[in-house]
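Lab notebook: predicted structure, single chain.

Context: the supervisor wants predicted structures on file for every construct in the current expression panel, including those that have not yet been purified. This is the next one on the list. No modifications to the sequence; it matches the entry in the shared construct table.
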Amino acid sequence: MKAPRAAAPSVSRIGLAEVMAFGAGDMGFNIIWGLMLSYLAYFYTEISLLPVQMVGFMLMAARAASLVTDPVVGLWIDHRPAGRQAIPVLRGGIAPFMVLVALTFMPLPHAWPVGMRGLCAAMGYMALCVAYGVVNTAYGAMTSLISPDHDMRLRLATSRMVGATLGSLLVSITTLPMVDWLGHGDRQAGFALYMVVVACVVGGLLWLPSRFCHERVATDGGDMTARARVAGLLANRGWRRLTGAMLLTMLGSTFLFGALVYDVRYVLHDSDHVAGWLLGLVSLMVLAGCGLSLPLAGRWGTASVMRGGTLAAGGVLLVAYVLPARMEVLGISLALFGLCVGICNPVCFTLLAHCMDGGDGFSGTHTVGLAWALNSTASKMAFDVGGSLLAGVLAASGLVSGVGVQSVHAQAGIHAGFLLVPALLYLLAGGVVLRYFAPQNPVEAVNSTASPPPT
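Prediction complete. Output recorded below exactly as produced.
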């Protein structure tokens, strides 16, 4: 029998400060996410001097730990009382998270045996992944808990995506210059000092949503078992489709950004510094797309914008693959791709929040924490799987490390991994997985032009 709905928390007006504070949180998370994606492996191999095989095992082992801890945190949030589900968890996890951010990038003495250094690094990174999962799951659930209103959720998601893009842009611009400046050429000392600064900045950014945001959505917690919550979530067709589409697009983005520097160097025969400028261009266009997301969703509905933007992103990459490999073609294509992604991101998180508001089976707000936890875990795994698959594609195409000129076959493999594979994944997400996606929220059903699912 369904548990009775909890009493709704007292409602207060959502002002601009709360919306901006919420966006600041994802800026903090993407600073750390960008550092882990772009510089963690480099730090372990080039600064801590750990073997590449050991580093690969460490990263996968730490991600495996997230497969267990993230759902546990989600279930814990779902069991907490209405009005105090996510924000207290976020607030309590900030200080440990800050400490682990600084410790993870703390260089270990080279005099220590490599096994001891590897064990310490693995334990530190695993602890960071667990702490990240706790605070990030709580933050993600707040999208559903701050407000039940469709338009307000879209504004919150837009603020979140703007903050996330700014965080990624900040990491790409400042990391290595700041490391060299703080360390005066000593990158061991530079990384240690830089990460202390980063930990303080990120802690301040995460404190803002924990202080200024409020939970207003009543939940169906009750005494439901974990098995019933999992069954209810898996019965939610909208959540399944949306999470599947997000997994495919994350996988495609991993291919795109992972192969970008190879394509610039070996296919376009340009400097690898150009790849950094192209990444900055994509980030700027994502910001522009976030600004367009709200009016487009108001005109055509969030589900239609999500499908159309995903298909457009895949189409842009496919056209770029077919056209001759030239820098101007690549620049225009990546700019348009970033614009499409920026349009999709806010509506994606808005739809994900609405999938938790009710529907068929057991679906409803009692699975908010678990839903966001598993969605986050799927995204993390997409990055890891995508990186491994990209490495396999490059190896199969005959890429030779350290060689300035690659074979024609290797260049073809690089270009396909860079543009063709992500294009197909985006088209699959938009044209197949989201083909019959229809939101279950009544407001969204009115606003959306989505076709109804087949009966």
